[in-house]
Amino acid sequence: MRSLASLMIVTCWSSSLIPAFAQSNSPFYRTFRNYKTSGWTANIGLHGFSAAPDTVPSLYQIIQPNVGLDTLHSGGWNHEGNRALKLGIGIWGQSPQSVIWDRWSLQLDGTRNRAISEFTGSIADSSGFLNPGGVLVDSSRSFLTTELTFRVHRAFEIIPDFFAEGHIGLGWDHEWGAYHERIGPDSMFVTRSNPSSDRIALELGVGVGVHTWGGRFLRIVGTVDALQLRPFAEEGDGRVQWFEGQYVPWNVTIHWDLLSKLPPQLCEQNPRKPPGEGDGFRESLFGDEMTKSKKKKDKKKKSKKKRRRW
Predict the structure, then answer these.
(1) Which residues, other chains included, contact 192 with Cβ-Cβ below 8 Å and sequence gap of 6+?
(2) For range 229-246, the mean pLDDT
(3) Which residues contact 293 (CB under 8 A, 6 or more apart)?
(4) How does 112-148 read in b/e, with b if 16+ C-beta sit within 10 Å?
(5) In angstroms, rounded to a whole number, what is the distance separating the alpha carbons of residues 106 and 18?
(6) Rounded Cα gap, residues 8 and 2, in angstroms
(7) H/E element holding 263?
(8) Residue 53 pLDDT > 80
(9) What is the pLDDT of residues 103-142, one digit of tens each?
(10) Dist CA 179 CA 176 (whole Å)
(11) Beta carbons within 8 Å of 194's beta carbon, 6+ residues apart
C-alpha cells in the first residue's frame, strides 16, 4: 500500500506541475549566444544513510509440539546509519522543448554506506530459559558505493539569475567491497540474507541556484529516495533493507554546472541567437557581394527615374 501511495504521489506531483512548467520562465532556457547547449557538472556534499525508524521492538516465538509457545528472544533493536562525503561528476544539457523539464543530467557519484544494528534484551539459552542482557550485533559497510543517476530538472526563476528547481531521477547504486557480519547467538533469530549489492530507486529532489556568469551555474540541492524499485523494502517505499534495519538514503550537495563556449565562427551561425544588429547570421546573409549588387540595382533605378522626368 505504501508503495502504491508513493507512486500515486509522484504521478500527481508530475501531472500537477505540467501547467506550471508551461508557464514558467526558466533561466536555463534563455538564449546563450556564445555557449553550447550541454556541458559538465561536478558536485561535493554530504551523503546520509539514516535508520527509519532507529528503534524497533523484537519478539520471536515458535510453536512447540505440545502447541505451547516458546520464546527465543524478546527485546529491541537499535539501528544506526552513517554520514559520509559524496563526490560526483557528470554531463548535463538543455532540453530543446522546456514544457515539462528544461534540463537533463547523467551523473556518477561516489560515497560510502555503513550501518550497525544492535539487539538488547533477553535471549534463550540451549535449555530454553531467557537470559537477560543478551546482545546481537549486525554490522555492514562498503569500501565504495557508486551511484549512477539520470535526472530531468525544471527551474523556476525567483528573481533575475536566481532560481528554485525540482527534479526526478532514476538511480542505480552498487556496493563495492561490501562486508557484512553478525556477532552473537543468531540461531535464536530469524535468518537474514546479506543485503543486496545493487539497488534501483526513484529519486526526488529540490534546490536553489544562481547564474553566476557566462555559462556557469551554482546550485545547492537536496535529494531523497522516494521509491525503492529493486529490491523492494518490506514496506515497498524508499527505504533500503539491511538485515533487521531499514535505511533512507539522502544527500545535500553543492553542484557546479559549466557550459562550454562556442568557437567564434559558430557563434555567428548559432540558431539560438535572435536576429538583430551586428548579429553574425545577418552579416553572412548581406555580405560584400550582395551589398555591391544591391548598390548597382539602386543606381539603375535612379537613372531610369531621371530619364522619365526629362
Answers:
(1) 138, 182, 243, 244
(2) 83
(3) none
(4) bbbbbbbbbbbbbeeeeebeeebebebbbbbeebebe
(5) 23
(6) 10
(7) none
(8) yes
(9) 999 999 999 999 999 999 999 987 888 988 888 999 999 9
(10) 9
(11) 178, 180
Q: Please check whether residue 298 is in contact with residue 79, taking contact to mean a CB–CB distance below 8 angstroms.
A: no
Owner of C-alpha cell 540558431: 271
What is the chain's mean pLDDT, rounded?
Answer: 81
CB 102 within 8 A of CB 61: no
**pTM score of the predicted model:** 0.75
Nearest by Cα to 76 from 91, 61, 60, 56: 56
Find, among 251, 248, 249, 250, the residue nearest to 220 by Cα: 251
Element (H, E) at 55: strand 55-63
Contacts (Cβ under 8 Å, ≥6 apart) of 22: 99
- In 212-274, where do the E strands start and end? 216-230, 240-242, 245-261
The amino acid occupying position 178 is A
- What separation in angstroms does the CA of 112 have from each of 19, 47, 81, 138, 306? 39, 8, 11, 17, 87
pLDDT category at 46 given cuts 50, 70, 90 is very high
Nearest to 113 by CA among 147, 88, 137: 147
For 299, the 3-state DSSP assignment is helix
pLDDT on residue 276: 43
Torsion, CA 230, CA 231, CA 233, CA 238, rounded to 10: -30
CA 254, CA 85: separation in Å to the nearest integer?
12
Give residue for cell 547564474.
Answer: 211
